[in-house]
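User: I'm preparing a small set of examples for a lab meeting where we compare how different chains pack in three dimensions. I only have the primary sequence for this one, and I'd like the structure in token form so I can line it up with the others. Please keep the answer compact; I'll paste it straight into my notes.
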Amino acid sequence: MMTISVRADFKPFKALLDGFSERRHSTTIAIALTKTAQIAQKEVINEIRTAFDRPTRWALNSTRLVPATKDKLVAHVWLKDRKGEAASNPAAYMYPQVLGGRRDRKAYETALLRAGVLRSNEFTVPAEGSALDAYGNVPVGVIRQILSQLKAAETSAGYTANKTASVRSRRAVSKAGTYFVPRPGSGLPRGIYARKRVGAQWQTRMVLKIVMGKPHYQRKLPLFTIAQRVADRELQRQYDIAYEASLGRLQARNAAQSR
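Assistant: Understood. Below is the structure token output for the 259-residue chain.
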């Protein structure tokens, strides 16, 4: 797993003159490293707020910090491990934002693939002009309606309400409109459309654009740059603070023992 770390190799001459043990000096360095990493983590979170349009609380909580110890003088700031998580997990979403590259398939895309709506090399992106939720995504309710009407809901974990002939279903379709994928030769670009009656007319609009290959993310979160900037600015200062605090405790202990 890739990590970002702040490292230091402080010369122990000053500590030795002040009577620091190797253990005390290592602990002081570990505190400085951890404090610096905590500041870097806060600045990364602030950058998420700036770089992304209305980020979710999951995105804001997507970083993790591993503190340094006296035996391992490395502090890590990185993204939460994706092991065992769905590819659509918001923390996993942050990886391509940091590294760039292509995103994984989302859960609803997997459902559409299994239902035969998408081909093996197809993915979706919000169509231009689509109504998005507060976090910049196609609303969950719309995704559920699409899955239901395209007979893909049964393959989507936690949602099995496929379209039926019930009064409730017909009422929902009448209100939301009918979702469909155009047949080849229709003249419409490939995508998932909503068709709805407005007054005496029918209106058709694309909701999700179907694209070939995984959508590509540009790097939006310069995590490495932020961490290096914070390390250059804070590490020595945090070491000085930790050193003075540790020296004060040592001197107080020595004074108490000499009484």
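A couple of notes for your slides: Residues 105-210 form one domain. Helices lie at 13-17, 22-51, 57-60, 90-99, 107-114, 140-149, 167-176, 223-257.

User: Perfect, thanks.
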